[in-house]
Design brief:
Elements (H helix, E strand, L loop, with lengths): L2 H4 L3 E3 L1 H9 L3 E5 L3 H6 E2 L4 E2 L17 E5 L4 H12 L6 E3 L2 H7 L5 E2 L17 H13 L3 H8 L3 H9 L6 H11 L5 H25 L8
Parallel strand pairs: 1-6, 2-4, 2-5, 5-6
Antiparallel strand pairs: 3-7
Helix pairs in contact: 6-8, 7-8
């Protein structure tokens, strides 16, 4: 087995990445899609969307470590594995992605919407169907019917996932992971992160008001 296939994508916490970025020691690469980047991004991050990610032409910056990031850390890890397969070494990605970055209190650049538009919540975790379509099916030229046949599910199942009308469960996650050579839990984790974020927006405040943590009850 070659050194590249033995290597793993190095997970790095946001505090370390923040220090590196402040010291101009790294090239931070955002692998989310352009629409996500335009809503909110880390200042100084280079945008290289997964939908057009090409390991063969990935930039090499002498003297700087390259760190990948996305919304929650799943796509950046997948992109890192693509780089390793292409022979790149010392590949790192941000644990928890932009969600962890913001949770740590670090700044982002936010596109300001026109005042005439109603304020709407900003979602950082796209539905898995959107990731499947933009980062796998469209770049690879695979039709939903073809994917369904290759992974042994009904075409309607894939169409429902792409439209957001069907969540990705464990079995479908395994089938997609086998076909696209991702981690076995990659797709189901995308679903969980998406569901958690939407639920926090819809009922998170109410839950915080109604429920007191056990440790605070004495």
């Amino acid at each position: 087995m070659s050194e590249a296939t033995q290597a793993t994508v190095t997970p790095v916490e946001v505090h370390q990445i923040h220090d590196w970025l402040e010291g101009n020691q790294i090239l931070l690469v955002d692998v989310r899609e352009t629409s996500e980047y335009e809503i909110e991004h880390i200042s100084g991050a280079l945008l290289l969307p997964m939908s057009s990610f090409d390991p063969e032409t990935f930039p090499q910056v002498p003297g700087k470590k390259v760190v990948l990031h996305c919304a929650v850390g799943k796509r950046s890890e997948a992109a890192g594995k693509m780089l390793l397969k292409e022979g790149h070494t010392d590949v790192a990605h941000m644990v928890g992605g932009l969600v962890a970055w913001k949770a740590a209190g670090f700044a982002t650049e936010i596109q300001i919407a026109p005042h005439s538009e109603p304020e709407a919540p900003v979602f950082l975790c796209p539905p898995p169907g959107e990731v499947l379509r933009k980062e796998y099916l469209e770049p690879l030229g695979i039709a939903p019917a073809d994917l369904a046949a290759r992974i042994g599910v009904l075409e309607g199942t894939i169409k429902d996932v792409l439209s957001g009308n069907r969540p990705i469960g464990v079995e479908l996650s395994l089938r997609l992971a086998r076909y696209f050579s991702t981690a076995s839990d990659f797709w189901v984790h995308l679903q969980v992160e998406h569901d958690l974020e939407r639920t926090r927006h819809s009922v998170g405040d109410q839950i915080r008001r109604d429920i007191q943590p056990r440790t605070s009850l004495g």
